[in-house]
Amino acid sequence: MNVALTTLILPAGEAATAAAARALGQGGLVAFPTETVYGLGADATNAAAIARLYQAKGRPAFNPLISHVGDLAHARTIGRFDETALKLAHAFWPGPLTLVLPKTADCAVAELATAGLETIAIRIPSHPVARAILDAFGKPVVAPSANLSGHVSPTTAAHVKSDLEDRIDLIVDGGPVEVGVESTIIGCFEAPMLLRPGGLPREAIEHVLGRRLMQAPADAESDSGQPLAPGMLASHYAPRTRVRLNAERVEPGEALLAFGPPVAGAEHAAAVMNLSGRGDLSEAATNLFGYLRALDTRAARNIAVMPIPNRGLGEAINDRLRRAAVGRE
Fold it and tell me: Under CATH, which architecture does the 242-325 domain have?
């Protein structure tokens, strides 16, 4: 059973950064913005703090976590970088890219964070609030999305408060995030593999590498049956209301998540939110989780989602929508 806490909410700034570093050092849980979504941070070297994080989120302990660090030198103390990994790190860090690498022999990150795998997921975020907290704390921070496990990811501090108030110690409010979907995850194995599409489009990565990425199956697992990376569970990012994908019209009692000009029947929908009226995929990614949360509060039978082009950031948007719909279509 979770012990009820009084969650402190502070606006981003020097006082919030100091409070966040202090809380992390004491084994506390701190939510803060990254450029992708709000993360729930814990000291990656403290197994007891990580156990608290799993409990607060209701997250399966076999689902590995991403370790966030402030710079490449720090990243190289916990993960082994080959030529491909270094090329990607130099091209896209800081930013919305996570690399899955073999752990170093003296990796300080707790086994609980890596779910016992021989690999570790690492990211250097670009958001100034996240970077300030990482610099002040000085150790790796695991930071999965700051929401109840499987629920829609948070893109504002209010979303975090809705899910996790009285379960965590501190929320640092840095305003709405910029990207709106989680980081892209690349497995740096014998050949680089796309494990999860995200805020960095596949095309940009392939351009830097000069080759196509291998595609991991949606449910790719390790030999022990664990996900190879975060965000790969079949059902994830889900609202409570059932999601119906690729809707060509709105049925009675449905809410509509539109993209571009709304489909037939929209005028009778329980509610309509348009990810991007002009069909802009970057705008759609930024709005995705916030709009799913908003529609989830309406008295609707289903959330009907219009088709999204599967190019650029559309690949990440469609990945999240498919996982949101599993078991709910």
Answer: 3-Layer(aba) Sandwich (3.40)
CA distance 99 to 5: 34
Q: What are the strands of the beta sheet with 255-258, ordered from one edge?
A: 242-244, 302-305, 255-258, 272-274
- As a whole number of angstroms, the distance between CA 227 and CA 324 comes to 17
Residues of the chain with CATH 3.40.50.11030: 242-325
* pLDDT tens, the chain, 329 aa long: 345 679 999 999 999 999 999 999 999 999 999 999 999 999 999 999 999 999 999 877 677 899 999 999 999 999 999 999 999 999 999 999 999 999 999 999 999 999 888 999 999 999 999 999 999 999 999 999 999 988 899 999 999 999 999 999 999 999 999 999 999 999 998 899 999 999 999 999 999 999 999 987 655 544 444 566 665 555 556 788 999 999 999 999 999 999 999 999 999 999 999 999 999 999 999 999 999 999 998 878 999 999 999 999 999 999 999 988 885 44
**Partner residues linked to 187 by β-bridges:** 100, 193
Check if the beta carbon of residue 52 is closer than 8 Å to that of residue 42: yes
Homologous superfamily of the 8-215 domain (CATH): DHBP synthase (3.90.870.10)
Distance from C-alpha of 198 to C-alpha of 184, rounded to nearest angstrom: 4
